[in-house]
C-alpha cells in the first residue's frame, strides 16, 4: 500500500493508494497525522507495509519525522469539522458528530428485517475472494475490507453516490446526481456511540468501521427513509426501531441538497 499526501480535492483510497488531502495545505494537522498513523497500523495488522510519498519534500520530511512518535497522536481530539474534503460546500467540510451507512432499497429491506448492518461477507454470504474479484470492487479493495460495515461522515453524499453506482453499474455523471437521482436509506449513528462498539476499527481512511455486524437496536440513532420508499418499508420496521425512523422527501433536490437536508434533520437543525 502507498500513502500519497498532497493537494488533493478529498481523501480517497483507490487501487492500493491512500490519497491523503490536507485541510490547511501544506501543513499537516495532528488529526491528519493520527489518520496516517492509523492507516499504517491497520495495514500492518493485515500484513501490508506502507510506502509514504508527498507532492512536496518538506511535507514528506515532516511526516516521516512525526511517525516516529505515534504515542503523541493516540489521544488527538477529533475536530468538530474536518476541512480536508472540499466536496461539501454547504458546511465547508465533514461534520464529525454523526456517521452514516447508506443502503439501496433492496438492502435496506434486508437490514430492517434482520435488525443488523452486516459486512459484505456476511450480508451476501460469499467469500471475500469472490467479492474482491467483482466488477463492483472498482477501487480494488483488499480482502479484509469485505469483513467490515463501513461508515461515512453524516453530511457526506458518498453513500448515495455509491447507491447510484450500483444502480447504473458505472460512475454517475454530475447530472445524474442532480435532481431526480435515486437516494438510499440512511442509517445514522452518533460517532461516540460507535466508538464504544467492541469491534470498531480506525483504518485511517473511513471515519470508523465495525467488523462483522452492528445491531441497530443497540446503536442506531436515526433511520432516514426517502418518502418514495415509505409504503415499502414502514410496515417492516421493528417496533423497537419505529421511533427512530423518519421519512423525508428529496423532491427537487440534488444529492448535495439532500445530504444537507438529512444531516440538518438528524443533527436537530432545519433545512
Give a quick precis of the structure.
This is Phosphate ABC transporter ATPase. With 271 residues, this protein is an alpha+beta fold.
Sheet with most strands: strand arrangement: 11-12-9-7-10-14-15
Largest sheet features? 7 strands, mixed
CA distance, first residue to last residue? 41 Å
Mean pLDDT: 95
Overall outline: globular
Structural summary, described in words:
This is Phosphate ABC transporter ATPase. It comes from Agathobacter rectalis. By secondary structure, the protein is an alpha+beta fold. It folds into 2 domains: 2-73, no CATH class; 81-267, no CATH class. The protein is 31% helix and 21% strand. The protein has 10 helices and 15 strands. It has helices spanning 30-45, 57-66, 105-114, 120-124, 128-132, 158-168, 191-195, 216-219, 230-233, 255-267; strands at residues 2-5, 12-14, 17-20, 51-54, 81-82, 94-95, 98-103, 116-118, 148-153, 185-190, 200-201, 208-211, 213-215, 222-226, 245-248. The chain has a 7-stranded mixed beta sheet. A 4-stranded mixed beta sheet has the order 2-3-1-4. A two-stranded antiparallel ribbon has the order 5-6. Strand 11 (200-201) and strand 12 form a beta hairpin. The longest helix has 16 residues, at 30-45. The mean pLDDT is 95.
Amino acid at each position: 500500500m502507498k500513502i500519497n499526501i498532497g493537494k488533493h480535492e478529498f481523501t480517497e483510497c483507490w487501487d492500493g493508494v491512500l490519497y491523503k488531502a490536507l485541510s490547511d495545505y501544506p501543513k499537516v494537522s495532528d488529526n491528519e497525522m493520527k489518520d496516517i498513523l492509523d492507516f499504517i497500523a491497520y495495514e500492518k495488522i493485515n500484513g501490508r507495509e506502507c510506502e509514504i510519498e508527498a507532492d512536496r519534500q518538506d511535507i514528506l520530511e515532516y511526516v516521516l519525522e512525526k511517525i516516529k512518535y505515534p504515542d503523541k497522536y493516540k489521544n488527538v481530539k477529533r475536530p468538530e469539522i474536518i476541512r480536508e474534503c472540499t466536496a461539501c460546500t454547504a458546511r465547508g467540510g465533514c461534520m464529525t458528530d454523526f456517521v452514516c451507512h447508506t443502503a439501496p432499497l433492496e438492502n435496506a429491506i434486508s437490514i430492517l428485517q434482520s435488525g443488523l448492518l452486516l459486512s459484505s461477507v456476511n450480508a451476501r454470504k460469499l467469500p471475500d475472494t469472490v467479492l474482491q474479484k467483482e466488477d463492483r470492487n472498482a477501487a480494488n479493495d483488499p480482502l479484509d475490507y469485505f469483513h467490515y460495515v463501513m461508515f461515512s461522515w453524516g453530511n457526506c453524499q458518498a453513500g448515495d453516490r455509491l447507491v447510484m453506482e450500483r444502480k447504473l453499474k458505472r460512475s454517475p455523471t454530475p447530472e445524474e446526481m442532480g435532481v431526480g437521482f435515486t437516494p438510499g436509506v440512511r442509517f445514522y449513528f452518533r460517532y461516540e456511540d460507535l466508538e464504544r462498539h467492541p469491534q470498531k476499527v480506525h483504518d485511517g481512511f473511513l471515519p470508523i468501521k465495525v467488523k462483522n455486524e452492528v445491531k441497530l437496536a443497540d446503536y442506531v440513532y436515526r433511520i432516514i427513509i426517502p418518502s418514495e420508499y415509505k409504503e415499502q418499508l414502514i410496515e417492516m420496521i421493528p417496533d423497537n426501531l419505529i421511533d427512530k425512523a423518519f421519512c423525508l422527501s428529496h423532491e427537487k433536490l440534488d444529492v448535495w441538497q439532500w445530504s444537507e437536508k438529512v444531516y440538518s434533520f438528524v443533527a436537530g437543525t432545519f433545512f
